[in-house]
User: What shape does this take?
Amino acid sequence: MYYGADYYPEHWPRERWAVDAKLMKEAGFNLIRVAEFAWAKLEPSEGHWDFSWLDEALDVFYKGGIQVVMGTPTATPPKWLMDKHPSIYQVDENGLVQGFGSRRHYCYNNETYREYSEKIVEKMAQHYAGHPAVAAWQIDNEFTCGDGLYCYCESCRQKFIGWLKKKYGSLDALNKAWGTVFWSQTYTDWDQIIVPKKSQAAMFRNNGHNPGLNLDYSRFQSDGIVEYCKLQSRILRRYSDVPITHNVVSERYDYYKLGEQIDIATYDNYPASPWKSFLGGDPYDPAFSIDIERGIKNKNIWVMEEQSGPCGWNVVGSTPRPGEIKKWAYQAMAHGAEAMIYFRWRACLFGTEEYWYGILDHDGIPRRRYEEVKEIGASFPKICEYNVDSKVASDILMIRSFEQQWSHEFQSHNWNFDYRTYVKGLYYGLYAGNYNMDISNEETDFSGYKLVVAPAFNLMDERLKAKFEKYVADGGNLVVTFRSGTKEMDNSMTERTLPGYFKEVAGIELEEFDSLNDCKVTVKGDFGNGEASIWADIIKPVTAKPMAVYDSEYYAGKPAVTVNEYGKGKCYYVGCDLDTAGTVALMKEITGQCNVAPALENVPAGVEVVKKIAKDGGEFWFAANFSGQEAALELPFEAKEIASGEILGKSLVLPVHGSAIFTRV
Ligand code: GAL
Assistant: This one.
């Protein structure tokens, strides 16, 4: 399996390549990623190709025992191309045309750009077809990361019209689905269709626009990105049968649809990036994100960029503490990463990312971080014997849906409600107790799971109703929360009594709800106490039984959480948000009732444990200490540390930032 770094031969003198290859080999590397931003070096002017420098680099590294992931360089269309065809620039929601100077400035739907992309991808695919150094292809780089929200250019509008014609067949059907009778928005000619960019009516992001238009535009933009990826994968597959990957981040498009176009999803993992302070930076973020990545294809992933130094653009984030690089790598492997590629091999002397430190500093001298990476490299083959093709032992599926997310984003119900944050909060409710889970979309087969959690699952139809009901009737346990089932798939409101399509399986009706704007509501129940600060559904049980009730407000005493027996299974309805401690306690109560066991019992707070099943069926565990202090784990069996082979006995002491992989003796 692959261990390596992202490398930019074009940034360094040729004489250095062999030095780097040797240092890499000594650290246990067998892979580098190259070329993903090198368009201007590969095609310096239109139709003039130069692969010589890359050929030479591949030779040096391949001779040194190192293969490559070859990136297609379409994230950085060069200046000559943008000057010749400025229509390729994205147009943002304010109508502002993007300029040159960074990257990702192209519109995915622009036909001219698609033609140029096809040309360079085909040239590269032809040139490197069958090359033994090429272990995989990466398409582009991080679709939508750093783009505007979506593109709103005329190419997009024209294609959107085509997309709508295909979806609705007639304008009558479109007008009905969007409810354009509201505010005289009826379209009488296809060419009248607008894209939902900001207008006077839109006070806040897209808020003034029709909800049906908004959701369809997200679906359309997502499809355009997936189609653009497919256009490249189709070409690559004609010339090569090595795996095709994309480093999937940003969450602006439907990951699951993109997953169909690639063989392996890869993730870029920066647990201590300089943006941590405003993007959120809990130690469990990588666990959550990598579980999401594993769900893209419901299979293990690679990390294509793993943080290996202090990093930043204009400011620098924290320096990884001794042990942290290993802890982050172990955490990523625990959650499904089979390959570990560090970003970047060496800090660059120039460019926007000249502050982004990698394994080596600007002077290219190996120091502490290199030694830590090398130490992991020494045991990597041993770890892979267990980890490759292993599975996270998971009885829980957390549903995470992009269509639901987009719908909630346009209309967030409450100023403080955010779908992703809410999903993450429930994730933490389980993670804190070391309950391992899979995260994927609603199309996943539910039947192997003891518990399916469907947070704020709002857009619904008969097909999904039948799927959820069958799962529960057959003995499954379903958790549904507030703001589920209130909408139809076209983003209009359902006429059904709430919780709409979930009414029967949950065995309840909602009498009222309270969007909590200037009050908090206390909740008490079998699980303990908690506090809601965003939403409170006031539940009337029909066949369900209350598990918790409100303890304040005019609805004190009314159910806040219920459980309903339905066929052989149970449906839990959680009518309110809860503070962190309340969420952890509620999830513990529910998992207990559903016979879901944690990865390990009695784990000290701040230590993450993941239980995995190796391909031969054997069990093993990853543990990582995020507590900030030494932590001791008592194990219910005699254990052996996998990387070192050390016999641990029945306890494991993890120093600050310590991590370990162990199995039964
Ligand atoms: C990633 C990107 C890399 C590099 C890195 C550091 O998002 O894929 O190319 O830019 O961030 O900023």
